[in-house]
C-alpha cells in the first residue's frame, strides 16, 4: 500500500478487497439463513435476513462507487 499511496489504483484495489469481503459475508449469511430455516428457527431467519439485506446494500454501494468513477479514475491514471 505504501508503494501506491495517493494513487487511484490503491482506491480501486481497496474497493475490490472490500467488495470481496461483502461477497463472502453474503454467502455466509445466506447459508446460515437457509440452515436456520431448515431447523425452524424463525427468529434467527428474521435476523439473518435483515443482516443479509444490509450486506447486499453495502455491496450495491461499493458497486456504485466502482462504476461511478473509482475504476475509471484508476484506468485513466495508467
Report on this model:
- By secondary structure, the chain is mainly α.
- It has two helices and no strands.
Please give the structural blueprint.
Elements: H1 8-38, H2 42-76
The biggest sheet amounts to:
none
- Write down how many β-strands occur, each being a DSSP E stretch of 2 or more residues: 0
Q: Whole-number radius of gyration?
A: 17 Å
H-E order: HH
Helical segment tally? 2
Strand-pairing-aware structural class: mainly alpha
The average pLDDT score comes to: 88
Overall outline: elongated
Query: In whole angstroms, how far apart are the ends?
Result: 17 Å
Work out the strand percent: under 5%
Helical residues, percent: over 70%
- The parts where pLDDT drops under 50 for at least 5 residues are none
Question: Notable features of this structure?
Answer:
78 residues, mainly alpha, 2 helices, 0% strand
Task: Please summarize what this structure is.
This protein is mostly helical and 78 residues long. 85% of the residues lie in helices and 0% in strands.
Amino acid at each position: 500500500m505504501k508503494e501506491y499511496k495517493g494513487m487511484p489504483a490503491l482506491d480501486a484495489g481497496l474497493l475490490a478487497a472490500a467488495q470481496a469481503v461483502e461477497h463472502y459475508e453474503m454467502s455466509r449469511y445466506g447459508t446460515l439463513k437457509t440452515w436456520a430455516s431448515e431447523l425452524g428457527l424463525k427468529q434467527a431467519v428474521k435476523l439473518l435476513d435483515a443482516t443479509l439485506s444490509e450486506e447486499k446494500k453495502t455491496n450495491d454501494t461499493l458497486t456504485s462507487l466502482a462504476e461511478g468513477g473509482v475504476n475509471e479514475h484508476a484506468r485513466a491514471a495508467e
